[in-house]
Amino acid sequence: MDFHLDTLLNLPDTTVESCLRQEQQVVMKLRFLLEKGNCPGCQQLSEDLHQNRPVLVRDLPVFGQPVQLQVPRRQFYCRPCQRYFTESLRFVDWERRYTQRYEDYIYQRVQAASIEQVSREENLSWDQVQGIFKHKFAQQKNQTGGQ
Ligand SMILES: [Zn+2]
Fold this sequence. Notes:
- The chain has helices spanning about 5-10, 100-110, 115-120, 125-145, and strands spanning about 15-20, 25-30, 35-40, 45, 50, 55-60, 65-70, 75-80, 85.
- The protein is α+β, with helices and mostly antiparallel strands.
- It has two domains: about 1-90, no CATH class; about 100-145.
- Helix 2 packs across helix 4 (about 125-145).
- The longest helix has 20 residues, at about 125-145.
- It is globular and about 50 Å long.
- About 15% of the residues are buried.
- The protein binds zinc ion.
- Zinc ion binds near residues 39, 44 and 81.
- The site of zinc ion (ZN) has 7 residues, from loops.
- It comes from Drouetiella hepatica Uher 2000/2452.
- This is Transposase family protein.
């Protein structure tokens, strides 16, 4: 909706519906521009939206303020497969509550500092920081191992 915010957000086929400050953080409500989901079973697009339960996803800070994105979590029905599927997001790994770019950032920060320090500075728990680090570490190991 807001051209300038969309430019700042810089995520594919995504627009910012609203942006507000809540408990010392910036909350951006997102909407996807494509009203279709890609079925993981047959790779066909479905327009048959069954439900949408948005989730909060942590993203990189803007102007020094922590950011939470309210991301649509859409479930579609695929007629050929006769089943429901939840679409996968291009900028958030499956079942994660952080954007990929935020997880990359935390992974690098931990390597330069420590889990304790990053946890304090990002206002995340020690377990959350360690969880991100483990997730990224496993991902990179799989990427190099698979080649
Ligand atoms: Zn299908």
